[in-house]
Amino acid sequence: MMAFWIGTVLLLIVSCALIVYPLLKPKEVDEATQRDDLNKAFFKDRLAELESEDQAGIVGNKDDLVIDLKQSLLDDIPSNASSSTSNASSMKWLVWPLVLFMAVVSYGVYSLYGAHSKVAHWQQVENNLPLLSQKLMNPNGVELTDQEMDDLTLALRSRLQYNEQDATGWVLLGRIGLANRDIETAIGALNKADKLMPGNNDIQLSLAQALMFSSDPADLQKADGILESLIKQPNVDLRVYSLLAFSAYENGDYGQAIDYWKQLQAKIGKNDERYDMLTRSINTAQRELDAQKLAQPTAVEGTPVKVSISIAPQVTLPKTGVLIVSIHTADGSPMPVAAGRYPINRFPMTVVLDDRNSMIESRKLSSLTDIIVRARIDTDGNVATKEGDWHGESLVIHLGDDAVVSIDQQY
Question: CA-CA distance, 308 to 248, in Å (whole number)?
């Protein structure tokens, strides 16, 4: 704060010097010199003219004219040579009023329109950083208000700007970002902390948690990779099982989610208050798993077609809707030979179609040779309407080969 005020004083001094200097410098000396030089030049030019006129016989009293010319030159000299000095002295009285005026105006305008209150708040927040950090880390303390969380974030960012090697500070900033649902800040801060302290399980667990809230498939894949490595450690943090179960559930892998939740139940025991909550989660996943099994064919008939489906980054998944996968003849006929409807889970995903998905009993999927696979995200549940739906199709493939479809176009 002191540096700020010193800087403003120096700027004010420089500004005053640029304005006051011309008042202190007596310009009249230069003006007198310029006047004398002009008179001399005029006198010489006039003498040359008189000389020319005398030689031409135009004038007969050259000496008298020269005397008059010299007399006029003497008459042009100011009678009071000290007047310029007195004028310069009078101008010096304006110096201090002008300096005072500039100081009053500068600081007055800053007090009205400047960010001095924000600067003061910033300085106060920086001083309160240890207290706010202690309050945040105290498990038995009072929760921080939204304003205190914002102040703590501001203080941490300020400190990390000058000390980028503070891994603890980056971890704290990342966890605050998680608490505020500021996923971009959380991922960035925890990534820096992980680089500063590689191999720290606690940091990697927090990073995985932040990555799981991202909508970027690459971040989700990285989160799964971190969790898979953490669960292989000798002393596994219980949160790893919970995060892995959540990831599996979101991916539609309900059986794996149930397995992770049961492992977590075994770790905490029946006397833990979280046991019943995990039981409810297991029951929910079991219902989803049962419904998933009923929706799938019990046996594969004919030659199955395995379709891997991904979406482009610009695709926004609707809150409600279904995924329609259809198989067409190689000529691109709009009428599908086989089709299936699937819930919109996390992409990329893989589905399998066979003769059970054939549209007409007399024309089986297995009767085709070459096919095209199309996938569409239907938003309104009506297959006849396509406006606004995202879709994509595969290349022509031979029946039995795996198909790859990228949903990247919109009707």
Answer: 18
Provide the 10 A C-beta neighbour count for residue 1: 10
* Interstrand relation of 322-329 and 338-343 (parallel, antiparallel or unpaired): antiparallel
Q: Residue ranges of the chain with pLDDT lower than 70? A: 1-5, 23-36, 59-60, 62, 64, 69, 73-93, 113-148, 295-301, 381-384
- Residue 231: other Cβ atoms inside 10 A: 15
Tens of pLDDT along 321-352?
A: 788 999 999 988 888 999 988 888 778 888 88
In a domain, 176, yes or no: yes
Burial of 341 (0-12, 13-18, 19+ CB in 10 A): middle
What CA–CA distance (Å, rounded) separates 74 from 239? 104
Is 402 domain-assigned?
yes
* pTM above threshold 0.70: no
- Taking phi over 0 as left and psi of -120 to 50 as alpha, with beta for the rest, 309 belongs to beta
Distances (CA, A) of 235 to 33, 229, 261: 94, 12, 17
Structure tokens at 90: 């009078």
Q: Is residue 129 part of a domain?
A: no
> Which residue reads 């669960």 in tokens?
231
87 plus 205 within the same structural domain: no
Across 116-145, b (16+ Cβ under 10 Å) vs e yields eeeeeebeebeeebeebbeebeeeeeeebe
Q: Are residues 177 and 255 in the same domain?
A: yes
